[in-house]
Amino acid sequence: MHDVVRRKLPQILLLAQLVFAVFSLFHFLSYGRLPAPFFYDVTDSFMDFFNTNYWAFQSGRFDQWRSIYPIFSFVLSKWVTSTQCIEMVATPHALRACDASAMYYLLATYLAGCALCAGMLARAFGRTTSHGFLDACLWFGVLALSLPGLYALERGNYILVAFLCLVLARRYPDDWRFALFLALAINIKQYLLVLCLGPLLKQRFDQLLLIIVFSLLINVCGLLLVPETHYSMLIDNMTTFSTTVLPSMFEKMWNPSAVAAFARAVEGTAYLSSGESWKIDGVRVLLGGMVWAGRGVAVAMFFALCLRANAVSANFIMLAMLVTLCAMSDSPGGYSTVLLFPFLPALFERPMARGYTLLLLGLYMPMELSIGPFRHFDAMDSFLSGSVLPEIVLGVSAGAYVRALSLYSLMCLMFCDLVKINGKSSAAGAPCPVLS
Amino acid sequence: MEKAPPLAPLVQSSAETMSLHIFVCQLLKGKWKLLFSTLLGAALAFGLSVVVTPKWEVEAVIRVATVLGEPVESVQEFVDRLRSPYMVKSVLQARGLPPTSQNVKKLMEQTRLSVVGAGVQIRVRADSDTDATRLAQTYLDLAVQQHEQQVQTMIEAIKKHALLEQLATRYSDVHYFSDKKSSLPDVVDLLRSSETRFTVPPSSFPKPVFPNRILFLAAGILAGLALGLIWVFHGKAPTESGR
């Protein structure tokens, strides 16, 4: 059974995603809105994109709008925004209405990233098969229809540009272009800085230095192209964003990547107070315990990577750091798992590939059946369909829970893999690079 | 000077890494290339910063007109008004410039607005400090015109809704008005405490704000350094078997 899943992973995923895509289409045509998890606040469709685009032309992006995006995001925004529209609008929503076609840039970026990544995945996964092109097409379908990618599109998040940059960085692993594209990705999503651990632990100091220089250069050029006097507020905005009081538990749980998001969501929420107290305490203790155990695994994984970096590939190191980041931080949304795609080939070459495959199935399988908690939504206008939506009650889907648990399990399995490697290396008397 | 050892795969029988020692040696070996490219980048950037047209900036703070102590619009609304394309086009027209897409976009980019207490800080850039001051003044003039209309409308509304009586009661013990026996419309006019005005008049920075020589130099140095690093390491970096 496991072998079937392993060999047929792209087929299974694609089939499930096609079913979900057809269901979504019918849902849209019938109700004027996409099903969960896409629908959350339709007045907010694509607004990660258009808010950034609007503020690229305005002052106060860091002191007034409190942006957590680095300056390079605004450079990209300036390139993709219609000048005719920006001179006619006074709000980001008006810009969305005027310049909706700008979303095609993001869509094209996503599809280009999927196409390039599909080739890499097909090569890595298809070592046991001989249908290279067919495999690539299958993987393209899997990636293009994947929920994290589509959700990022619905939000209009620039994470999709970071995804393309990571794919391009992976295409040139031993080249200066690796450093350039990684620096570009870091300048879109600054938490990708953790990927520098790959070249550092592999002792590729030349690449590491280039990444630092390119990152600084991109920042300086960004400041030349988008003059900004309050850029230093970026750090303050980031810390405020991550520590701020939650406006809504529901928002945090809607499509998370981490168990930590659930743990934070249930802290002090009124929703659970209606249940029995021992059950509430049980949920809190369970989630809190999982978070603390996960933190322990994350720290141990970091040391294990440092100890046995020579036994794993740079891709594995970078994937381990990304998985740890996504699994332990409640700030990035569920769409951040799209960033794992370019590094997944590192898992297929491991002895534990079977276990990884099963977890990837859980991570990318669309299982969007609302199981709660539920929330009431007032009537609102849909940007996508243009129709007025009636009042509805929507719930968090099963997929939200499964994805968070799968990612958590993936982190634990990668740690077990490292422990196993360490055991074998120690038995063989292999030196430890950090200690030697 | 001792010759640096050649770059070669090192460390734990792996062909994929570069020890710190070799990395430093390689850097030292290529120091002249690095220095040359960095200096070249810095020189080019400096040259560019000399060639480009400088931009001057003036800064001023505008306070919104008030009626009976209340502003005619909130500070945020005023910022949005100043930021609106209509206002930008009006400023261009008032300055005798055609409101083309390019001019509108340019002025929008060169005008920065932020809320400062009860006022709005406006910073305008132009090719000279005189032009920048005139632009800031034009923004104010247009805002005054628009607020004047709003003030009149508000006063009319107050009169129409018989709020004057309440006002008279409220201020009946004020000697100034009772002594003067002013008519109520006059009272309203007097209580219109202020019109839209500069609380901090436009003042320019002593030096042009663009080009920022430090940023230009930083960009040139970093670009030169990046090219130098590629020059030194490109084609010589060891391949990684694990990838």
TrEMBL record, chain A:
**InterPro entries given for it?**
GT87
How is the protein disposed in the membrane?
Multi-pass membrane protein
User: Where are the membrane-spanning stretches?
Assistant: 12-31, 102-121, 133-151, 180-201, 207-226, 285-305, 317-341, 392-416
Which Pfam families does this chain map to? GT87 (PF09594)
Which UniProt keywords are listed? Cell membrane, Membrane, Transferase, Transmembrane, Transmembrane helix
From the Swiss-Prot or TrEMBL record, state where the protein is found. Answer: Cell membrane
As for family, the record states: Belongs to the glycosyltransferase 87 family.
Q: What is the protein's given name?
A: Glycosyltransferase 87 family protein
Source organism of the structure: Uliginosibacterium sediminicola
Q: What is the lineage of its organism?
A: Bacteria, Pseudomonadati, Pseudomonadota, Betaproteobacteria, Rhodocyclales
Automatic annotation (TrEMBL), chain B:
* Broad class of the protein's primary localization: membrane
TM region(s), chain numbering: 214-233
What is its subcellular localisation? Cell membrane
Indicate how the chain sits in the lipid bilayer. Answer: Multi-pass membrane protein
Pfam families, per this entry?
Wzz
Q: Which parts of the sequence belong to the Polysaccharide chain length determinant N-terminal domain?
A: 18-70
Name the InterPro entries for this protein.
Bact_polysacc_biosynth/exp (IPR050445), LPS_length_determ_N (IPR003856)
Keywords annotated in UniProt: Cell membrane, Membrane, Transmembrane, Transmembrane helix
Write down the superkingdom of origin.
Bacteria
Put simply, this protein is called Wzz/FepE/Etk N-terminal domain-containing protein
